[in-house]
Structure formats: structure tokens, C-alpha cells
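Re: the request from the purification team.
They wanted to know what the chain is likely to look like in 3D before they choose a buffer screen. I agreed to run a prediction and write the result into the notebook, where they can find it.
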Amino acid sequence: MFDQILKFEQALAEYTGAPYAIMTDCCTHAIEMCLRYHAVTQTAFTPFTYLSIPMTMHKLGIAYLYTEETWVGEYPFHGTNIWDSARRLERNMYRAGQMQCLSFGHNKPLHIGHGGAILLDDAQAYSTIIEQRYDGRRLSVAPWESQCTFKIGYHYRPTIEDAKIGLEKLTTINKLPEYHQYPDLRQITII
């Protein structure tokens, strides 16, 4: 059942040079699981990003500041090893020791329509996050109802159909990321 997802993750890891890739339902949830894994309590990042990023910080109770930086393709969450790489997808793009979160949404290098992934090289993080993605399920246990204990997890799983599309389109990527201007989120208030 999960073969297509695993095949896409392996192809994505090979394409980007990452030891591991974890497909998710969206980039924001990929970032959230990385933030949760590292128990991040504070960070700083560009204000020129998608609205879901400060919303996630509020959801998780993470204190944040905006930097003055602009970006093309990806930007870091300062004080962490986490990157929002939503607008970047290139061969051998992976940076050792980092967690780079991809988006497969509209107008992204790998346009599936939705979905995301985490590129990483930490085996422990991979093991933990892969279970979190599927509601705390260990995918080696079938049927899942026979699993008796669960770590906290989230219903952030990708679809088999999206993995299949990703596999088909991955070999057709041949352009560098384009600049995309997000609004300055310093102009909004979240209540």
C-alpha cells in the first residue's frame, strides 16, 4: 500500500542528495513536525513568507522575530537547522545536517497541487517523524489496530496518488526557482 510513497521518497532523496526524504501532506506540516522534533521555543525568519508560517509559530507557542532578509527558493529558521525550501527543488540541493522542507503546491518546482517533504540525514529524526506523520503508527505493524502504544502523531500523511504523480514529474524538473514576492507579514496582526 505504501510502496508508491516509499518509491517517491527514495527517488526524491536520490535526486536531492539527501539520505532520507519524508513525504507529507504539505510543506507547513513538514516544517511543524521539524519544529516539534527539535522542541524549538524561539526563532527568527523573513517576514516575506506565507501566512501559515507565523500561524504555525502561534499554534506551537514559539516566540519569533522577523529578520530583514529577502530570499529566493528557501530561507532558514535562525537558531535551528530547519529550512523552508518551498520554492526550491534542484539536483543535489541537500545541505548536510539540515532539515529542508519542500512544497509541491501550485507554482512550485514540482507541481503536484499540494503535498510536501522533509529532506534530512538524521536517522533518529527520520524514524520519529515518519511515525508522527501517520498518527503515531509504526508502519511495520499491520493491521494498525494491533499496535498497543502510540507516540503522539499527526494526520499529516501524503496520498499514494500524489506520490505517483511526484514520481512521474520528478524527472522533468529542469529550471531554477523563480523569485516570488510574498507580502510583508510585519503588516499583519494575528489575534
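For the purification team: The chain has one domain: 3-187.
Please add any questions underneath this entry.
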